[in-house]
Specification:
26% strand; 16 strands; 9 helices; Metallo-beta-lactamase, Chain A
Length: 319
Amino acid sequence: MQRRKLLGAALAGTAVMSLTSVSSQVSPNIGTPTPAAPGFRRTKIGAIDVIALNDGVVRRPLGQEFVVNAPLEQVQALLASQSLPTEYVDVPYTPFLVVSGDRRFLFDTGFADNGPGTTGRLRANMEAAGYKLEDVTDVVISHFHGDHINGLRMKDGSLTFPRAKVHVPAVEHAFWMDDARMNAAPQGARGNFMLARRVFGNMPAEQMVRFEAGAQIAPGITASAAYGHTPGMCIFKVESQGQAFHYVADVTNIPSLFARNPDWAVVFDMDPVAARMTRRRVFDGLVKDRALTGGFHFPFPAMGTMEASGSGFAFKPLA
């Protein structure tokens, strides 16, 4: 029963993030977040360029609902111990562009023009980094939450990356495109199912590629399962000349909370038990390998390393 309750809360949370504007979460008394400037950061992995491209940030009032299995006082105490605000959390959105030879892979998309005014900066930051939307040859989706797939289409329905193949996890696609599952969901929790149909429903078959966990997306780019946050989320390892970069998507929503305390569950974790196991497994491996890591909701530049910290982990951003 508790698992079903948490799944229902997660579905309702994804509906909020999918079809409604997250700007409704911004309250005047907590101010407005400042976008990253500059909004891109480039690093080299062997012969490959990895570029963090910030799509913006949303400031969300911190309430009891955000961490579903911990008292608000404990959550605020953890933030205070890191000299962070306790009345709100800033949630950044950072896709990554991987430039390998003549191919340019964008990992997740942000909002395009479908989000609030503090988002939709991907295009400008990509151009500042020297690339246009038309230059993207491949879009690689980690999971189907709105902040990761909304940017595939503009508000008018046109494709944001018209030349790009779109790679999606097969398990994730099967879950959100299942009509029976959508119809069985409560009315208020169908938003993400509807969004998946808006984004992928009439996408040309030759443009979309479904992949399984463990598959090689392209030479040097491998997907692996990271189930829990959603039923089919995948993360990715990019390798070149003996070096590696790991894109961990939403393995942790906000590292100052859910990496520091991996057993906490954010409202958007659809299977909190699996998500907790995934966080510990993935972060244990990253700490062991001292691997360069990027996360969609990590504080900009959204790249750095994970380190052991108490019973959890801490994110150390690139200097």
